[in-house]
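@channel sequence for tomorrow's demo:
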Amino acid sequence: MLKLGIGIAVLAASLVAATGSVSADPMADAQATIDKYAGRVTEWDGPTSGPAAAENKTIVVLAGDMKNGGILGVADGVQEAGAVMGWEIRVLDGAGSVQNRTSSFNQALALKPDGIAILGFDAIEQQVGVEAAQAAGIPLVAWHAGPKIGPDPENGIFTNVTTDPMAVSAAAADWAFVDADGAPKVVIFTDSCCAIALAKADRIKKEIEDLGGEVLEYVDTPIADTANRMPTLTTALLQRYGAKWTHSIAINDIYFDFMGPSLAAAGLGGTDRPVAVAAGDGSESAYQRIRTGQYQAVTVAEPLNLQGWQLVDELNRAIQGEEPSGYVSPLHVVTADNIEYDGGADNKFDPENGYREHYQAIWGK
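structure tokens (generated this afternoon):
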């Protein structure tokens, strides 16, 4: 018996060494992820050194679609930080179409700016414009311009600013798993026009299925046309799945801007299932829905204003021939329980980590 006991102990030790635990506890692991990202963000973990502010620069912001709350929030941050730098900031709205974004890119190049910031669309979509900017020596920074975090020289991007999109997706899926007591039945909403949107949706699907949940449907519908598509699509999904459908998880908040009326028409209250969970971005409308319990329970928010400041800092580095900062901004699981802090009173995730003061210290402003 002693030898058998020793053998079992050795086997258990081997399992711990190989896997980190003898047996997995998916519920505890998922809850630990939620807790990790739901707390206050008070510590600055970004850059503390870099070049002083370059003087008298003109920056053009190419926004994929200013109706998208995430893009709007980042653009506001760029303008706020740009004003501190004393730079001129021009914002051009791509209005949700490839044609309009191409036109905006051409307009930006004609302005001969000192830098360009791409917000919320794939850089490879506008490869001709990117190559023209490179040829003209105009540095490009981006927000959500592809699945790669940070420097992306192969696609002509000095750095792509984002939280970790896979961590955002996993956190959203984990919340749904816990909320469904380990048995979520999920509809996922994404948009195949964007590589980052597909990557996030695929990560959501994998996390749900790895945890033992079920993906009822993986819906590919254009972000730019959510106002037209989501009402009828929601009704059709309700008819197809009924009470079986426990959670909706979308790659950003804008999908839920247009689901509420269809859910209400079906007799569902604002906190009834299916429960809406957004894997980004933390828009103002999402905060309002969460606060009032109206057809959205969670957004895994990004610090949009901070990311705008980071874009300005990265451009300042690029303009002066410095390396990217390497900073990856924090994410935040926002629920009704924690919505009032870290900027929540203003309907946004704005970390209480003093990022404005830290960047101003770097820039000498």
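heads up for whoever presents: The domain at 165-301 is CATH 3.40.50.2300 (Rossmann fold).
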